[in-house]
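Hi all, long-time lurker, first post. I run a small reading group and we've been trying to get comfortable going from sequence to structure in the token notation. Rather than ask abstract questions, I figured I'd post a concrete chain and ask someone more experienced to write out its structure so we can walk through it together at our next meeting. Sequence below, copied exactly:
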Amino acid sequence: VSSSTAVAAGSEPQKPQSPPHPAVSVSSGEFDVEEYLLPGAHAARLLHRVRRAERMLLSYDRTGWLDDQPARVTGRLEIRPAAELGPIILCLDTSGSMRGARETVAKALALECLRGAHKQRRACYLYAFSGPSEVQELELSVDAPSLDRLLTFLSCSFSGGTDVDAPLKLSLERLAKAEWSQADILMVTDGEIPAPDEDILQAISRAHSEMGLEVHGLLVANQVTEPMRRLCTDVHVFKSWKAVPGGSEFAFA
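-- Answer (accepted) --
Happy to help. Here is the structure in token form:
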């Protein structure tokens, strides 16, 4: 008998043994390729993919993140009911330097304030000022007498000097009334105004601290003047001069 067919008495044939597989870890994703492709290993393959996804999700980096700083809103659009909007006090410069295109813008703004105040159910009061003690007062509303007075005002030409203290003093007196205490002031001018009186500036500062008063300046000119910087909480410069007849000379270069 050849040695290739010889079998020891009392012993069974030995099957060839394959080299042992290393330990397989499902959680680490270390699979033997042949075992991974065996039939019935579908559940294992799904588990393998889940584990891989978990490791990917847990390995992200955070950049530009401050853990020790409180969160804050960087921008939002807030819409409040009209009842929460305060009245408008419009101080309109009608001095001689406002004639022409600036006058057109000022009159258009008076109409827009009337329209906006009526739409939002807000009170609106106009102080049109020029020289010392030259202040016209007009409550802007949509009843017939008020509209007649507004049309008369719009038909007049602007002239005279500039006294900014008088309309500001009258505005502060109106703010002392309960129904006007939440009002803000809109000052429309070309900025060619003298420095407001220090007492008035201090009164405006107190009203800002105690009542939340804001003075917004709409400048119908191409540069912000120092009196407007001192007076106003915010200064807005009118720039749409191409839409105004004769307004090209005031446009920015």
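A couple of things your group might point at:
Residues 1-11, 21-29, 57-66, 76-83 have pLDDT under 50 and may be disordered.
The beta strands are 88-93, 124-129, 135-139, 184-189, 215-219, 234-237.
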